[in-house]
């Protein structure tokens, strides 16, 4: 019974964390079948590990280490798949975004193993299956909280910016974007273009927004929902983000199929903050400052 409840808990946790959203990944239904199947295998490994260890069958540890190796292959598989898909889109995800997605899929399998293992352990220690069910309900609820991380709206303020030209130079408010040489392209930008300004809320956010991968994630997610008003071989109409070096603000230039400034701002706020882009220099400065004061007191 402990193994059955553990497997069920782990599988439900994987289902809870699996979601096909506006980015349409994983694809439905085949991509979902692959990840649910891997989740079932992970749940089985976690649920069986506890009874095996209690019976002093230490080969279970070997199976868990093999599982970890296989799930690292899942990360490589996701990276390869997304990199190939990225070659065929007009606005790419970028390597930072792809690596983040691959890391998430690997990590969620480990969460499934841990959930199944804990549930199985509770049933065996308590001696009653009802405690395992309660533990499973708690873990499934917690796994739902792990489904999403920080969004861009949590670390920055986003507002509509004004697209303007000074000669052939394109600006979003006072942030220079690029030079548009052809009059035809300038007319198309005036007609279809949108601008937004992303203002970091603190020093840490300023460093995070300077990451090129985070900027590319913004462009990709907005273009996924609103489309992009261009075709191949038109570099002047590529969506672009430039940074104001004085205060860290980002000027976002978009040219969507559907010109909807409110939807564009909402989408920018919903862009995930990439784990590999997060930097917290203020934490280090606080520690150094605290150590300096401690050393001064010792003297």
From TrEMBL:
Keywords: Membrane, Transmembrane, Transmembrane helix
Transmembrane segments annotated in the record for this chain: 33-54, 110-131
Domain of life, per lineage: Bacteria
Pfam families to which the protein is assigned, alphabetical: YIEGIA (PF14045)
Claim: Transmembrane is one of the keywords in the record: yes
Protein name according to UniProt: YIEGIA protein
Lineage: Bacteria, Bacillati, Bacillota, Bacilli, Bacillales
